[in-house]
Amino acid sequence: MKNAFYAQSGGVTAVINASACGVIETARKFPDKIGTVYAGQNGIIGALMENLIDTSKESSADISALKHTPSGGFGSCRYKMKSLEDNKAEYQRLIEVFKAHNIGYFFYNGGGDSADTCLKVSQLSESMGYPIQAIHVPKTVDNDLPVTDNCPGFGSVAKYIAVSTMEASFDVASMAATSTKIFVLEVMGRHAGWIAAAGGLLDDSIPVVILFPEIKFDEKKFLAKVDANVKKFGYCTIVVSEGTQWPDGRFLAEQGTRDDFGHAQLGGAAPVVANLIKDALGHKYHWAVADYLQRAARHLSSKSDVQQAYALGEAAVNLAMEGKNSVMPAIIRTGNNPYTWEIGIGELKDIANVEKMMPMEYISDDGFGITEACREYLQPLIEGEDYPPYKNGLPDYVVMKKHIVAKKLPTFEV
Predict the structure, then answer these.
(1) Going by CATH, does the domain composed of 154-298 fall within 3.40.50.460?
(2) Cβ proximity of 398 and 298 under 8 Å
(3) What is the DSSP letter of 275?
């Protein structure tokens, strides 16, 4: 009987812990096949540094409470492993840790870069002779993983952005006669405009202009659209993706710095857009950056998102029990009215390092809104409420005890 390793990777979400709950609770249903589920403290780094959390020390009630707790209960990381040829020492270290703790199952919960890591780990059997079954559990607020209809974490972010856009628009509408006429909300989305698109779910009585990464920013056309909205409605709300680009390919929000994956660090599209409007049209503005708020808002998660996050964690374990390796459970949409779905399966070689962009038929002809096809896709993903329990007026979230098992190996530097 082998033990299992589970870890969270990349930017956390409101429902990634629901997937953790699905993995751990399902693994506990196979006591004759899976021993202890060890969680990596801070993702794959927990494996490399042999910082393994013994989840058997967490009560059933606390594991269950993960389902309504945001962020990464075991800690996450942004760390992309290099190829075997470029850094064999890391893979050798993983094997040493896996051997020392009798680990035969590897569940990695993350986005595109995490799928790449999971793919590399899945190849240890062939490349280095260590038997391991590696299953990727999808997660990303950007909703840009291929194969799956949508990614856990996205539905809740979309709900938060739609609600925030609506509520802020009500605020601006009430002040527009004598004060603020422009509100700009900056949302996540480096290359794909899925999150920004959620701002288009409001009805036509609210003037919303969306700036997508898929559409090069046309300043003149944009200012004309905003001006027309202000003249017609008295105000205008703009939802801008952090990945919106100038015609020459530069990000509006680019700061000149890069993260650990080599991606340009973004943040600052909202003030750029707001100042363009101020300079050209003279309107008073307010802007905000949703940032961590959009992905941490478990109190506003969509019910379908929570259900799917748990189901994919559960499915990952079931796939491992079926002997699968180098795969990812996926959401397959089977109907819209009513919304129905089932669990499918994708090969990691078809998923790792592949981004799913928004189809152009989801973006309106003028480039500033969404089409009915996009609305039909998005609407079911934000529906339903799954409120956490409350205590003293605040959500009652759980904090893991994080019992670290005794180390058996020499220290390893990451």
Answers:
(1) yes
(2) no
(3) H
Check for a shared fold between 2-140+300-352+385-395 and 154-298: yes
Give the pairing of strands 285-289 and 52-54.
Answer: unpaired
C-alpha to C-alpha distance for 296 and 387, rounded to whole angstroms = 13
The whole-angstrom separation of Cα 140 and Cα 144 is 7
Report pLDDT for 86: 83
Q: What is the pLDDT of residues 203-223, one digit of tens each?
A: 999 999 999 999 999 999 999
Rounded to two decimals, what is the model's pTM?
0.94
Burial class (CB in 10 A: 0-12, 13-18, 19+), 361: exposed
Give 262-312 pLDDT, tens digit per residue. Answer: 555 555 899 999 999 999 999 999 999 999 999 999 999 999 999 999 999
Q: Which CATH class is domain 2-140+300-352+385-395?
A: alpha beta
Write down the domain spans for the chain: 2-140+300-352+385-395, 154-298
Catalytic positions, please?
142
Number of CB atoms found within 10 A of residue 332's CB: 15
Give the separation between CA 110 and CA 196, rounded to whole angstroms.
21
Q: Say which amino acid occupies 246.
A: W
Give tens-digit pLDDT for 15-72: 999 999 999 999 999 999 999 999 999 999 999 999 999 999 999 999 999 999 999 9
CB atoms within 10 A of CB 232: 10
Bridge-partner residues for 8, per DSSP?
A: 109
Q: Supply 392's token pair.
A: 């003293």
The count of residues in the chain is 414
Closest listed residue to residue 55, CA positions, set 123, 10, 110, 101: 101
The answer to whether 16 and 72 are in contact (CB under 8 A) is yes
Is the pLDDT score of 257 beyond 50?
A: no
User: HSE on the CB side for 295, CA within 13 Å?
Assistant: 24
Residue 315 φ/ψ region, left for φ over 0, alpha for ψ in the -120 to 50 degree band, beta for the rest: alpha
Would residue 374 be called left, alpha or beta, if left means φ above 0 and alpha means ψ between -120 and 50 degrees? alpha
Instruction: Point out which residues pair with 363 in neighbouring strands.
Output: 370
Give the closest residue to 160 by CA, choosing from 132, 139, 187, 126: 187
Helix (H, G, I), strand (E, B) or coil at 59: coil
Farthest-apart Cα atoms in the chain, separation: 72
Cis peptide before 131 (omega within 30 of 0): no
